[in-house]
Amino acid sequence: MAFRNLIFDWSGTLVDDVAPVLKSTNAIFAHFGKPSMDRAEFLSKFRLPFTEFYKEHLPGPSMDEIEPLYVANFGEPTEGVFELPHARNFLTYCRDENVRCFLLSSTKRAHFDAQAKSLELDDFFEAIHAEVWDKRNEIGTMLEQHGLSPNETAFLGDMQHDVETARHAGVTSIALLTGYDSPEKLAAVSPDVTVGDLGKLRKLLQGLNGA
Q1: pLDDT, tens only, 131-159
Q2: Which residues face 7 on adjacent strands?
Q3: In what order do the strands lie in the sheet with 172-176?
Q4: Before 150, cis peptide (omega within 30)?
Q5: What's the angle, vertex CA 6, arms to CA 3 and CA 8, rounded to 5?
């Protein structure tokens, strides 16, 4: 393993939750009289921090109005949320290699807790930093709080914001093509490493370790 510490995003990196997120987003749009988006349009336009997405596409209401609607329309937190291929095997590999694993996500903490427990992925993380609107404002605190050296740490995510967050903290950015942002969107922010999925990342890291 080339890193001693890995920070994981949740949505699009370890789980697929696009369906309920889109459903809830469209319910918010409908509440305020805005047309809904289909999956392709949503994925092309959605971005983090999500406050900026809503400011662009729904500029009138405040986040104090939007957030309760999001939670109310999301429904059962585990419904429509699935473990992505290779997620469990990769986390198990990290544990076997004594790699410290952390979570940094915009996902609501209650949603993460329910989803991780349901999928039995809740025991892999040393610490959870969830419900973070702008990850760039949190990752530095994580490094300091948990004693993580930037040159021994990577942040794994599926969106431009994740790459920007890693760069902000001086850690390696690993972009996964399993989530919200397309390969073209991710390439535009020049991740340090781009891989198709966690299975391919494991093979890459094993190769580096062997070398």
Answers
A1: 999 999 999 999 999 999 999 999 999 99
A2: 102, 155
A3: 127-129, 100-104, 5-8, 153-157, 172-176, 193-195
A4: no
A5: 155
pTM summary value: 0.95
H/E run at residue 157: strand 153-157
Is residue 57 exposed (0-12), middle (13-18) or buried (19+ Cβ within 10 Å)? middle
Residue 1 pLDDT level (bands cut at 50, 70, 90): low
User: 100-138 burial, b if ≥16 CB within 10 A, otherwise e?
Assistant: bbbbbbbbbeebbebbbeebebeebbeebbbebebbbeb
Give, for 128, the enclosing helix (H) or strand (E): strand 127-129
pLDDT in tens, 69-80: 999 999 999 999
Q: For residues 27 and 190, what is the distance between their CA atoms, to the nearest angstrom?
A: 34
